[in-house]
Design brief:
Elements: E1 3-8, H1 15-27, E2 30-36, H2 47-57, E3 64-69, H3 73-79, E4 84-89, H4 92-108, E5 113-118, H5 128-136, H6 147-159
Parallel strand pairs: 1-2, 1-4, 2-3, 4-5
Bound molecules: 4'-phosphopantetheine.
4'-phosphopantetheine (PNS) binds next to strand 1, helix 3 and helix 4.
Length: 160
């Protein structure tokens, strides 16, 4: 059974994230969405909330499990017998950071691969930071986040 990890901060989850998770779920037996619980990083949604939002947005995908993690992703992957980390690549600008993470994870866990899925053209500009900025400034985020979690995300971000 091939288990892979879709890792990220997901603060909050976007349609781009869900697209990558959905596509990965068709390629592998089991997907573990690993949500970074980093006490040092300022986030709008705590880890529990981020996990719940992704669970809601991926409820129709039976082979997807969502959990938070802290510590090294390479260790988390080994603990869950994952063969690879799946990451979405939006643009060339993502590449340097992704390449550095992939090489670090390979060094830490030589058995672990990193697989990149290119984003869909229509999601290329979408990121959690853009969602936060647009919502906080009163803009429409309905095409940026999954419909089932839109109101929850908007209500929280508008209050911040
Ligand atoms: O959505 P993001 O913020 O680009 O995701 C980054 C994430 C969570 C995948 C990355 O920061 C991570 O794996 N953090 C865990 C700590 C770790 O393993 N660091 C070494 C490899 S970079």
């Amino acid at each position: 059974m091939k288990t892979v990890i879709c890792s990220g901060s997901f603060d909050p989850v976007t349609v781009g994230h869900v697209d990558i998770i959905t596509r990965a779920s068709k390629m592998f037996d089991k997907i573990i969405v690993a949500v970074l619980n980093n006490m040092n990083k300022r986030v709008c949604f705590n880890a529990e909330e981020r996990v719940r939002l992704i669970e809601k947005a991926t409820a129709e995908l039976p082979n997807v499990e969502v959990t938070s993690f802290d510590g090294l992703l390479a260790d988390f992957a080994a603990q869950h017998n994952a063969t690879a980390i799946v990451r979405g690549l939006r643009a060339l600008s993502d590449f340097e950071y992704e390449f550095q993470m992939a090489l670090t994870n390979k060094k830490l866990n030589p058995e672990l691969e990193t697989i990149f899925l290119t984003t869909r053209l229509e999601y290329m500009f979408i990121s959690s930071s853009i969602v936060k900025q647009v919502a906080q400034l009163g803009g429409d985020i309905s095409s940026f986040v999954p419909e089932c979690v839109h109101d929850e995300i908007l209500n929280r971000l508008r209050k911040d």
